[in-house]
Design goal:
single chain; alpha+beta; Rhopdopsin 7-helix transmembrane proteins; Beta-Lactamase; two-stranded antiparallel sheet; 15% strand
Length: 406
C-alpha cells in the first residue's frame, strides 16, 4: 500500500506532468492563433519540461491501480531516457529565446556552443544509459514511486547538466533581470516574469535535489516549477484587451509641445503587430531616409500630429547623436517612440506601447538595413528614393504587407 509520503510524491509529480502538458498545449494553440513565434517556442519548452515527471506519473498511476510499481530494474533505462533526454533541449530553447529578446546577433554563438554540449549529452545518454542513470527504489516496493537520477559517478554527464543549469540561471535569470532594469512599465514587468521563472526553473532542481533532500519539500519544489511555467507564459504572452479612455495627447507644432484633448474610445488587443503605428529611418544628420505608416486611420495620431512628431524627433536625434548615452524611448500618454541607434542612422518606431518583440524586430531590421544600403549610407546626402526597397525589409521583420504606390 502506498505510504503518505509516496502519495504526496506521486500526486505532486502527476500534477506537474499534466499541468505542464496542458499549459504547454494552451500556449502553443494561442501562439499559433496570434502568430507569436517566441510564445510558440515557449509552449514547446513547457511541454518538454513536463516530460521529466512522466515516469513518476506513470509509476504512481500503476501503484494506485495495481498496487505495484511499473518501473523496475529491467525497464528503468527506457523510462529514464524518455524523461531525461529533454533536459538540454529545454535549456537550449530557453537560451535561444534569451538571445532573441536581448541580442539577436548572438544567437549563432549560443546555438553553436550549447548545441554542441546538448549533442554530447544525448550521445552519452543513448550510448551509455546504464552508466548515466541510477535507479533509486523505495525501501518497500509499492509504497512510493521510483526515482531515476543522473548518476553522480558519470562526472562528464553531470558536468554538462550543471553547465546548462548554471548558464540558464546566468543568462536567462540574471540576464532578463538586467534587461528589466533597463526597461519601463509593461516591458519591465514582462522581463521580471521571465527572470523570476528562470531563477526558479534552474535553481529549484539544484536546491531541492542536491542540497535539501526531503520528501515533504518535494511539494514546494514542484509547485515552484509549475509557477515558473506560468511566469514564462506571462512574460511572453500577448496582453489582454485594454480599453483606452479619453485622455490628453501631445500635439507638436514648430518643435513646441502643446496639450490638446482628444475624444475617442478605442478597444485594442495588445498584439505587437497591432501596436505598430509608424516606422522611420533617420540619418544622424537629421535627414529622413525612409518613412512608412504601419497602421492607417488611427484616432491616436493624425497626419498633422505625425508630421510634427517626426520633425521633432529628427531634430532631437540630430542634437543627441554625439551623446554617449543613447536615447532609447520617448513615452507619451497614448503612444511610445522607440529608438534604435546604428552606425550612422536611427530606426524610429511609433507604437501604442513598447514591447520586447518590437525591440527585437527593430534591431534585426537595423542590421539588415545597414547591410543592404552600406554603400549608399556613406554618401553625405543620400537620395531617399534609393531606399524604396526598404519596403521588403519592413515586410520581412514586422510581418507587415505594404501596398506601394507605383
Amino acid at each position: 500500500m502506498i505510504s503518505p509520503e509516496g502519495l504526496l510524491n506521486g500526486l505532486s509529480a502527476t500534477f506537474c506532468f499534466f499541468f505542464a502538458l496542458t499549459l504547454g498545449v494552451v500556449i502553443i494553440y494561442n501562439a499559433r492563433k496570434l502568430r507569436a513565434r517566441l510564445l510558440f517556442y515557449m509552449g514547446i519548452n513547457v511541454v518538454l519540461a513536463g516530460m521529466f515527471w512522466s515516469y513518476k506519473s506513470l509509476d504512481f498511476m500503476s501503484i494506485v491501480l495495481t498496487g505495484s510499481n511499473l518501473i523496475n530494474e529491467q525497464n528503468y533505462i527506457f523510462y529514464g531516457i524518455v524523461s531525461w533526454m529533454w533536459t538540454p533541449i529545454v535549456l537550449l530553447i530557453s537560451l535561444y529565446i534569451f538571445c532573441e529578446l536581448v541580442d539577436p546577433s548572438k544567437i549563432w554563438h549560443f546555438v553553436s556552443i550549447f548545441g554542441f554540449l546538448a549533442l554530447l549529452y544525448e550521445l552519452i545518454l543513448f550510448t551509455n544509459p546504464s552508466g548515466s542513470l541510477t535507479l533509486n527504489e523505495p525501501s518497500i516496493l509499492g509504497t512510493d514511486v521510483m526515482d531515476i537520477e543522473l548518476s553522480d559517478n558519470h562526472i562528464f554527464m553531470f558536468s554538462i547538466t550543471f553547465v546548462f543549469l548554471l548558464s540558464g540561471m546566468i543568462f536567462c535569470g540574471f540576464g532578463f533581470l538586467w534587461k528589466a532594469t533597463k526597461e519601463t512599465a509593461l516591458v519591465k514587468k514582462k522581463f521580471l516574469f521571465l527572470s523570476s521563472g528562470y531563477f526558479i526553473f534552474t535553481g529549484f532542481p539544484v536546491i531541492f535535489n542536491y542540497i535539501v533532500q526531503n520528501p515533504i519539500l518535494n511539494l514546494i519544489y514542484r509547485i515552484g516549477m509549475a509557477t515558473s511555467f506560468l511566469f514564462f507564459y506571462f512574460g511572453l504572452r500577448e496582453e489582454k484587451e485594454q480599453k483606452l479612455r479619453p485622455t490628453k495627447k501631445i500635439d507638436i507644432r514648430e518643435s513646441l509641445f502643446r496639450l490638446s484633448k482628444v475624444e475617442f474610445d478605442l478597444v485594442d488587443k495588445y498584439d505587437w503587430r497591432q501596436s505598430l503605428l509608424h516606422i522611420n529611418v533617420v540619418q544622424k544628420s537629421g535627414m529622413t531616409l525612409y518613412s512608412q505608416e504601419l497602421r492607417p486611420k488611427t484616432p491616436i495620431i493624425d497626419d498633422y500630429l505625425l508630421g510634427g512628431i517626426l520633425t521633432a524627433v529628427s531634430y532631437l536625434l540630430k542634437e543627441l547623436s554625439s551623446q554617449k548615452k543613447p536615447l532609447k524611448l520617448i513615452e507619451q500618454e497614448q503612444f511610445s517612440i522607440l529608438i534604435e541607434e546604428g552606425e550612422n542612422i536611427f530606426v524610429v518606431v511609433i507604437a501604442l506601447q513598447e514591447h520586447p518583440i518590437i525591440r527585437q524586430k527593430m534591431k534585426a531590421f537595423l542590421s539588415d538595413f545597414q547591410k543592404a544600403f552600406k554603400d549608399i549610407l556613406n554618401d553625405k546626402v543620400p537620395k531617399p528614393k534609393l531606399f524604396l526597397s526598404t519596403h521588403a525589409l519592413v515586410s520581412k521583420h514586422f510581418n507587415h504587407h505594404l501596398v506601394v504606390e507605383q
